[in-house]
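Checklist before submission:
- one chain only
- standard amino acids only
- sequence pasted in full

Submission:
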Amino acid sequence: MSIHVTPIPKLVEFAAPSFTLGTSNVAGSAVTAVASDSTLLVFDAVDPSSVGASNSVGSSTVSSRRDHVHAGIGGAGTVVDNAIARFDGTSGASVQGYSSLSPTISDAGVITLASGNLVFPATAAASAGANALSDYEQGTFTPLLYDTDRSDKSQAGDQKVGSYTKIGNRVMISLHLRMSSLGSLTTGSTAIIGGLPFTSANTSLLYHSLAPSNTDGFDSLTAGYGILPSVYENNDYVTLRVNDVAAGSSSMTVAEYSANGNITLTGSYNV
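Returned file contents:
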């Protein structure tokens, strides 16, 4: 007589699926089963991590959608080819787009301004680079006649205007000065025109001659004179010399400038 033994099946515990999404197949070892209607966690509703400074493959235990979006800087909207983007930190972290007036930079490094201005700081950021444009400024100043004391002695001019343009370390000036009264200036002192917008460079023997385009009213000067205006090193004023065909060259005195002196100058100097 044969005896048949029927094995009692081992009970298998049904558990929640606990699969790991990996980069290759693995048989696993748990003695569990998954029901056919179980749900496998592939993604969740958690926001993805923010944009990092470098790439990372991430963790195999963290799920996310394939079309997820990382938080970052917002889109630029309307863009122009080669446009220089700008950041908007007021209404939100976003890059603002430009219209056709966008500043651009080409692949060759050429920066183009279609509109607007290139603004330099009020205080120049000096640069020793020979090819660096470190400053641009334009404005006005008020020239006035002084003696060597360079103080206010009630002298007055009825026409005293000056303008300047500073590009890098070079200052271009134009001035017109007509005196109406010498006040209590020392008449025997050297005459200078003060009020320049910047002090000249303190470089020995670096003199800057200016060009007079109009000189009249110097009643005490003889016929045939010429006026030679210059800006010497480390000065913020114009020194005047008189070139006389008979007497030669000498510093102009306040008396020689006189209360009727009228001069117009143009030129430039280093700062």
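Reviewer check: The longest strand covers residues 156-167.
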